[in-house]
Design brief:
21 strands; Probable electron transfer flavoprotein subunit alpha, mitochondrial; alpha/beta; Rossmann fold; electron transport; five-stranded parallel beta sheet; about 425 residues; electron transfer activity; FAD; seven-stranded parallel beta sheet; globular; 3 domains; 12 helices; single chain
Amino acid sequence: MPYMRIFVAIATLQVKIRKQEPGDASGARYLGKNSSAIAARISSLALLEPPSPTDDRARPPPLVFSSCSSVMVPPLRSGLLRQATTCLRQNRPTPVPRVSRNAAIQRLLSTLAVLEQRDGKLNMSSLASISAAQKLGGSIHGFVAGANTKQVAEEAAKVQGLEKVIYVDNAAYDKGLPENYAPLLVDNIKKGGYTHILAGHSAFGKNLMPRVSALLDVQQLSDITGIESEDTFIRPIYAGNAILTVKTADTPKIITVRGTAFDASATEGGSASIEEGVDPKAECLTEWVGEDLAKTDRPDLATAEKVVSGGRGLKSKEEFDRLIPPLADALGAAIGASRAAVDSGFADNSLQVGQTGKNVAPQLYLCAGISGAIQHLAGMKDSKVIAAINKDADAPIFQVADVGLVGDLFELVPELTEKVKA
């Protein structure tokens, strides 16, 4: 918003204005000739309208503010007002620099990033949410709830980009049970008056955020991969074959963020304050019973820097287990699988990569026996380097692969494994 026009209008109350001749309009705007009209109205409101352009279609609408103080920024007010007063006293044109509308709006934005944690460690999708919030601008607060979360809040305070971390230490919210977590989050959203609520597009975020949007009676934006402005976002549809630009007028905006689309914020260097949040201590109808987690020494599939995946081309579970794990171990990689391989019983469902599985974006994604169905590509196309092994030279996977081997995977994979070990 052009703050300088407001300051010039205020200056007309302090200085007798002589006729102003507009100068070169390139890169600047000038106060209109009828300054007395502005002076007459400044007591009630500021009517801000630049000189009429030659092209009527280019005329911007007048900007009306009921209160000048409500849009001024304290560090700017005294300096720009003094500059405007000096120009008017010296009887010379007063240039009005263009001020980005986005810069003004960003001062009014406030984002709450919902932080997912497990065993005291922040999830990577939460760090990506903070990175996405930085693209919006404005203040960014983090929110975490569960048992012993003050220590988690202290760690989160070191993340770059956060100004404040709000925590609620209550075991009822442990494990992120959405039936209990959603009302708690809504109470803290209302207290903070946030314009945007961001969470990772993980199982936690996909379970929690629809409930939050329902309680706030607003629509949710899911799985965004880009941010164009404070109300315009980008998300993939049709398994990534089309990109949709969505504009929403809802407030607050409830959003889940694809973790692989944004770089994770640095976990060191921040100095956010820590504050205890609102806890209504309402009766929680859902109770955590337990979980049975598979133990593995390999990297987690969702966050691994290297992934080796197998598809239906391996033909059997025995061949999958004979070829894929040794290559993954040699590379220090996580193991993935296509949906076809999972449906055929070659691999566990937790290893599925794709639209209905996990989205991954490792430094290296090596796949064998995967043809490249669009559902699979949607979950791994953001990988930095894609290497594929397939006997069909026309397989769709080669259209996105950086490196390809055309041949019999039953011969190529063992040979590749030996070369990596060497």
